[in-house]
Amino acid sequence: MSDYILVLDEGTTSTRAMLFASDGVLAASAQEELTxxxxxxxxxxxxxxxxxxxxxxxxxxxxxxxxxxxCIAAIGITNxxxxxxxxxxxxxxxxxxAIVWQDRRTERxxxxxRDAGHEADVQRRTGLLLDPYFSGTKMRWMLDNVPxxxxxxxxxxxxxxxxxxxxMFKLTGxxxxxxxxNACRTLLLELDGDQFDQGLCDLFGVPCAALxxxxxxxxxxxxxxxxxxxxxxxxxGLVGDQQAATIGQECLAPGETKATYGTGAFVLTxxxxxxxxxxxxLLGTVLFxxxxxxxxxxxxxxxVAGSLVQWLRDSLGVVDAASQTEELAxxxxxxxxxxxxxxxxxxxxxxxRAEARGVITGLxxxxxxxxLARAALEAMAHQTYDLAQAxxxxxxAWGTLRIDGGMAANDWMAQxxxxxxxxxxxxxxxxxxxxxxxxxxxxxxxxxYPDLASAARSMRGTLARFEPDMPDEVRQDRLRRWxxxxxxx
Length: 489
Ligand code: ADP
What we know:
alpha/beta, Nucleotidyltransferase, domain 5, seven-stranded mixed beta sheet, six-stranded mixed beta sheet, binds adenosine-5'-diphosphate
């Protein structure tokens, strides 16, 4: 029997291998932490060699639990997006440390491009903004600052790729490919472009020859090298983490939306085959590509979600554990007028105010731990409400909101989201939606299901639902308080 799916989930802080049965049930997993390198303020790096070694170690730990490589039908890969690896195609070795998505070192280059008037055109073509977050300027930085990278480019042996591309190279023994959901985060691919765009490569100063071939996200994509696992295993799913979670939440039809509440919050709404054109500073992105056909999404992220709760716990000592915010919020009828704007790291979508800072308004002597905890949780619905307005203005109004991430375990917050947004909120019992989405793509790609929709339907599992139940005057009062506090941030 070879019907297990092996998912390699290469996150920012850890790498994991997870074994799924074909019905989506998790059978085994292994995990290793990744070393974070912070060489200067605002810089974040990973060792690509470590990423590969730990990925392989995790895979080798779970494969025997399936009964050996012969019992693995297919591999699916999902990864932290935008992080750039540079390696030498001839030696297969990294040329420098990977620059991680969080890294801000290319801020100046981005503002030069903005000042030169390139942003509107870049946004129209790629769906992205000129921000250090995306891969293109990180590649250019390596070329300008790492002599080994420049030398390999001159010799014609330089390979650039995001993390899935690096793993594909190592797993296959030399394929240089990237899937459309990762490739569209580089600033070098047009949303409807089949391959990387020469004009965009010229603008960012990245040689097209160093870039991977852009491929589908599901299907017979590649095979692992014979020597790695004792037999070849087909790699049939390849997807960036946020798109994976969207697929894992079965958001396969236009309007279907997922929100992940982890450290920050990431919201994606399926846009079908329409290329997203945001007027409200949201991002346009490829959700999936199968048989050369693309489905798109609109994406918005807020920087501070669960990290606000972490701050209440670690810096203020308001709670001992994040989950205590729930009983505190329930212990009072309202926040007593306390409102928190969690702009501790600036404001993301739809405001994009990097210089904004957090504020707490409405404090009185009656304000205590419960009021602060409740205001922190209320802030999640407030931030999500602003996103919902922007999505709606871009023609991507939400139906049901499907939530996941560590913070989604909080029932009070889930109910408050439903109340404030006025939509049903759904939460799956299996919350590892990123890995599950990669497993769905891989299962469909391996032919275990006739298509992605059947794979998603069969593998998703059970759901909890939260229905809106809040008087409108309460909602309006909350929104008024939020808007006033936001102006102060
Ligand atoms: P990430 O994947 O970004 O590391 P997770 O999805 O693991 O994050 O979510 C962890 C975050 O969620 C932490 O910041 C934590 O403060 C918050 N969190 C976890 N459980 C709860 C809870 N029950 N209520 C509120 N916040 C929570």
